[in-house]
Amino acid sequence: MAVLKRAVAAAALAGLASAAPLVKKGDFEFITTVPYGDTIFSVGDISYLASTSTPVLSAASTHSLTTGSIVPFTVITTGDCYVSADFVSSTVQSFTEWDDVYSAGFLEGVYISSNCTGATIDPAVFTWAESANVTSLFLSSEFGSVDTGKTSYTVSSIYQATPIECGPYAVAISEGGAASFSLVYRLYQDHQRTFIMGVYPARDAIASFKGLPQYLTKFQDEMIPVPSRIYSWSDSRPLAGLRVAIKDLYDLNGVQTSGGSRSWATITPPANITAPAIQQIINQGGQIIGKFKTAQFASGADPWDWVDTQYPFNPRGDGYLTCSASSSGGGCSVAAYDWIDHAIGTDTGSSMRRPASVSGTYGNRPSQGMMSLEHVLPLGAAQDTSGVFARSPKAWQHFAKAYYAPDLHQDPSINGLEPLVINDTYVWPKKVYFPVDYLPVRNPAADALVQQFVANLTALGIERVNMNFTQAMIAAPPTVSNMSIWNGASSVLNGRTAWEEIGKPLTTAWAQMFDGRYPPLDPAHRNWHNFNEASVTLDKYNASLLIKRAFSDWMNYDFLGADADSCSEALWLYDIGTGGLPSYREEDLITAAGANATLLSYRPPTAKTTGASICSFAGCPDFTVQLGQVPYFSNVTFHTEMVPVAINVVARRGCDFMLFNLFAEMESRGMLSPVKTGRTPF
After folding, report:
1. Which of 195, 156, 192, 161 is nearest to 71 (CA)?
2. Given a cut of 70, is residue 218 above it in pLDDT?
3. What domains lie within the chain, and their CATH numbers?
């Protein structure tokens, strides 16, 4: 990805070699200093954060004036021994073209650095700087003496040991000419209220992060600090420069993990370690920009049952559609903002798949055990997974293959399943099961999109097989056919984990701190005061793991089938979403719409169980794929709007990369499309 970005930037440089110089626009204004000592400022109508407490470069210079404040600067670093005016002009132009953080306002100062000893500079550069209204021009000491001619700005030399990345910086000049260069983050408004907080690296010895304690006063929205993509143009790591939001269940060193609960935040300190699932992103070059909202402790709470945290807003349709349950902030943030590339959520019962479906994004529940969940607040340790939201199948595939590393697979003793083996194949399954008890979906216009998707699969050589999944389950052994057995086992697995890891420590600590009182909690967790520990003993938990293993073996081997070439002999389809109907964030809106809206808990009357529950217990990969959009009449805007339509595709456990490859291939063939941000996905 970083290589691609550099290639794009290089093409821009070549095409813009004769471009006219940008003219500096927007006045600098200091706004405030945050508690960590970092600085918020604006250039024109855009707000920025500068990490002035930890500059990336402090170097001596020949500059004779102190700034008294920070100055927006553009840094251009090159290995060339001759720097021409065309190169400087086109480089700045490419910054503006390809980066949303950079603007011409950073031409207040320009620092040109060469790694070539004895480098020379085109005298026309000084003319360019004059025309761009630059007030300070710094040159690295490699240039030696230069004849600047008569200029209206100062020209100074910088003496540095190592170069810094190109891009926008905030520079302070102290007495004696010492220049400090600090990274800059653009502050974006979270107008959909999908985030708990924005975060940015502390750049300290323990690799911690800082939470940004600021919001936009006018709207009381969180401000999310987003780094310049230019900083990563020279980084060859696969996730370099990608901006990623994470669910407020994952520990991030230096930042509070609340799990959507003010009570939990009260009794626990900020994290002192970053979860391996998140550290993997950082190690691969990704940029963590914030923690998004979750239903309290990853429950499946309806929007109207969120209390501690305001429910996020879905940008799709009329703006009042549901974001679904616990990973809702992730799906709706990726749907809303093009300045986010991906979000990392969790899925126990449906918490990646349903938010992806209703937000018009791509999202996956991976094979159970695909990613370590150490230092992540659990809902059910034996059924929790880590998923990725994306806006295109190809971006999804690229991220996933860098993210899901074999050395981060979960210990099988946690999930009760066989050790995970991943097959990265481009051979497709022989057949796709079309379950007539789950499909067609209720909206005929949406079902036409489903039928076209199946036709596209058959065009790839995957045979459509109509079948009844409920009947297949009934014919299976009791651990599958008897729903009360495996549903009960699933409840034990989740119930024991949630109580032992969260409920018991929370209620005990709260009682000790507040004179025996019970903690304030959302409705889904108010029954912990009389929790029956005898219902989730360790013996029952271990017995439930055995039931899970038997169910998993049936689903993955007897039903889907193993195949040496394609990994999974078959695919299975179902709809986890709304079937092309709106589902609102307010219960009254759903009730008023009657048959023209739906609850997310809907189950087809011909189906024995919800499709979402199958892979939650069987451990198989279950991917939400966007197919299109259909119109509905909104009870909010009283206008025709569009609602996303998705389908869920299931394969055998361990076949995740085959699914990613399949959907990327379908995008290449025009069978699937990237989604847009905003009101409509297409």
Report:
1. 156
2. no
3. 2-186 (3.50.30), 188-212+237-417+426-472+552-668 (3.90.1300.10)
Where helices occur in 56-133 by DSSP H, the ranges are 85-98, 124-131
Q: Is the pLDDT of residue 201 over 60?
A: yes
pLDDT number for residue 59? 86
Residue 314 contacts by C-beta under 8 Å, 6 or more apart in sequence?
A: 192, 320, 321, 322, 323, 332, 335, 358, 359, 585
pLDDT of residue 664: 98
Q: What pLDDT is attached to residue 219?
A: 67
Mean pLDDT check: name the lowest of 134-143, 395-404, 422-431: 134-143
Helix axes 656-668, 393-403, angle to 10 degrees: 150
Tens digit of each residue's pLDDT (9 = 90 or more) over 454-494: 999 999 999 999 999 999 999 999 999 999 999 999 999 99
pLDDT of residue 65: 66
Q: How far is CA 129 from the centre of its chain?
A: 39
Q: Distance (Å, rounded) from C-alpha 564 to C-alpha 423?
A: 9
Residue type, 249: L
Tell me the residue ranges of DSSP E strands in 228-306.
243-247, 287-292
Omega before 644 within 30 of 0, i.e. cis: no
User: Which DSSP helix (H) or strand (E) runs through 169?
Assistant: strand 167-173
Residue 238, CA atoms < 13 Å, CB-side half-sphere: 14
- At 335 the pLDDT is 98
- Which amino acid is located at 25 in the chain? K
Residues 496, 544: Cα–Cα separation, whole Å = 11
Buried b (16+ CB within 10 A) or exposed e, 444-474: eebbbbbbebbebbeeeebeeeebbbbebbe
Residue 312 Cα distances to 217, 305, 359, 677, angstroms = 19, 13, 11, 16
Burial of 682 (0-12, 13-18, 19+ CB in 10 A): middle
Is the full-model pTM beyond 0.70? Answer: yes
**Cα–Cα distance between 212 and 205 in angstroms, integer?**
20
Give CA–CA dist 568/564, Å, rounded: 8
Nearest to 472, CA basis, from 464, 480, 460: 480
Tell me phi and psi for residue 360, to 5 degrees. Answer: 70, 40
Kindly tell me if the per-residue pLDDT of 98 is higher than 50: yes
Query: What residue has token string 């029952």?
Result: 540
What is the mean predicted confidence (pLDDT) over 551-578? 97
